[in-house]
Amino acid sequence: MALTREQMAQRVARELKDGYYVNLGIGIPTLVANYVPADMDVMLQSENGLLGMGEFPTESTLDADMINAGKQTVTARRGASIFDSAQSFAMIRGGHVDLTVLGAFEVDVQGNIASWMIPGKLVKGMGGAMDLVAGADNIIVTMTHASKDGESKLLPKCSLPLTGAGCIRKVLTDLAYLEIEDGAFILRETAPGVSVEEIIEKTAGKLIVPDDVKEMTF
Known about the structure:
By secondary structure, the chain is an alpha/beta fold. It has a single domain, classed as 3-Layer(aba) Sandwich (Glutaconate Coenzyme A-transferase). It is built from four helices and 14 strands. The protein has helices at residues 5-13, 85-93, 129-135, 196-201; strands at 21-24, 43-46, 50-53, 76-82, 99-103, 106-108, 113-114, 139-143, 154-155, 170-173, 176-181, 184-190, 207-208, 214-215. The strands form two sheets. Strands 1, 2, 3, 4, 5, 8, 10, 11, 12, 13 and 14 form an eleven-stranded mixed β-sheet that branches. Strand 11 and strand 12 form a beta hairpin. It starts with a helix and ends with a strand.
């Protein structure tokens, strides 16, 4: 069974480490804030100028002026800092973010990512994604494995305009966790109840299936 958005966020949260500075992109990545382990000190960064995002607010903690890059209301944890976007992008471009979590329309076997434009459709645009993929070494892409029409989003070559070239090494889809090495997707984990055969069928790019593929647990 395919992972829910919340389960995808839970799985990404397992990649967090104590002391990390983490940027969460728009969409599924924002949910990771709800699954940071209680005993772990992680600072979540938003390119609109907030370092130290907390969980999404309850009705009692809602502050309409406290938002993330996707214009969702958020909370600020103890020790948070607020600053202008110029300083925020200086952090990003300077390589000071330890982990970046982004959504995408397509990823290919060369680690290219397309996440900002679909010709003929209205989308939000580039935002800070180009700076994030250029300034970060550790990036996880979260996305559905295939489109609503069943077309694979893990491709031999991206068909949409690129956000960044050769920068992606880890992909978490609703079906699997994969790494990209030497021009191929390498299957590392399957979602609970999802067969390797289904993943092979829905992966258009070259896929390597090792003998030690694990099933995710929640």
